Amino acid sequence: MSKFEYAKLADAVAAEIASGVLKPGDRLPPQRTFAYERKIATSTASRVYTELLRRGLVVGEVGRGTFISGEARRGAAATTEPRGARIDLEFNYPMLPAQSALISKSLEGLNRPEALELALRQATSTGTLALRKVAADYLTRQNNDWSPRPEQMVFTANGRQCIAAALAAVVPAGGRCGVEALTYPFIKGIAARLGVTLVPLAMDEHGVRPDAVQKAHREAHLSAIYVQPVIQNPLGITMPAARRADLLRVVEKLDLVIIEDAVYSFLDDEPPLAALAPDRCVVLDSLSKKVAPGLSLGFIVAPPRLRENVMAAVRSGGWTAAGFALAAAQQLMADGTAAELARLKRIDAQARQKIAVACLAGLEIQTNPKSYHLWLTLPSHWRSQTFVAAAARRDIALTPSTTFAASPGHAPNAVRLALAAPPIDQLEAALRTLAGMLGSTEEDFDLTE
Predict the structure, then answer these.
(1) What does DSSP say about strands 257-261 and 224-227: parallel, antiparallel, or unpaired?
(2) Least confident of 7-21, 190-204, 275-289
(3) Number of independent structural domains in the chain
């Protein structure tokens, strides 16, 4: 059989999906059965299934098999933009009722001609000295002995650009970066465009396992690992002190860089890994959650030895923030507005978690009481993709586990619920609807269009 035969077979299955012969939620036969039916080698069947996974036409669920994706007819494997669902439990951008008034008051001075003249100039990746000082002070954790220095600060337009710049700076094209087995989805696309291979690292209830880092590095050299040690997305895990110490010992021994995503850390008091290993960690943060997605700024706190590489990556990637965004962020941080919004959102997140726990009582959830999201493991009579499709019929947007799986075909049977966006009454109504749905079966819902 030619080396392109697997692609032709994948095209044939794709045509069956497009024509409706195979529908979202349909289960493909085991690979050995597929090979027998098509009179091909089992290795070729494996390549067919891998190609279907790559195209986003199917999803694999651990212990259950391979299913036609609920996104297959759209031709998309993962969520990319908000879909306009009436109740959004998919995207996690907290917006408080009073925050627009607070932000407006903070930015009043920016409409002065002399302020605008400075704000509208061409910006650099390091901003001004005044901005670096304000940002370093804003990120300082008074209770846990982490205080970045102004000369470490580098800025981008948002958090995703921070990830791209950090990866580009510390992982060469063709290199490997370890990531949590369930991780922030957008790093997958970023890594693919940079030519970086992501290596899934096994996790447990305390976060990424140090022995998994050692195993991955032993099999093929890693340049770095990307982790979220505080309120991990999607599982909500915050690494305890013992796990942090064990992980840092391994990273030091293997001489790896840690890309530490701290975007949700404002919701907790735990220190970053950088507090214990400042020369080993590149810390990433942004204002998108703390302030607003439409008024964001990305922060990279780089060790001195890596700062020039990070700055070069920001410049070459075109990820420099606009001058007005830098000026607005400086004002919000300097007058305490950003800190006050973060304080109010901590209260809001905990209130929403209490509602979620009450509405989903009796179901298998994993969460952090300080977090804006939770992980819901589905009962055996539901599959992740079909549950997401059924929820969408009720104008509720969710994220399936496949979106977070670093390795295609190895997603647990679960969904993530983002609690930040809906008004409280809509949030409670949506959660009660989902709990009621889980008491029914897939067969009770018509998921065809």
Answers:
(1) parallel
(2) 7-21
(3) 3
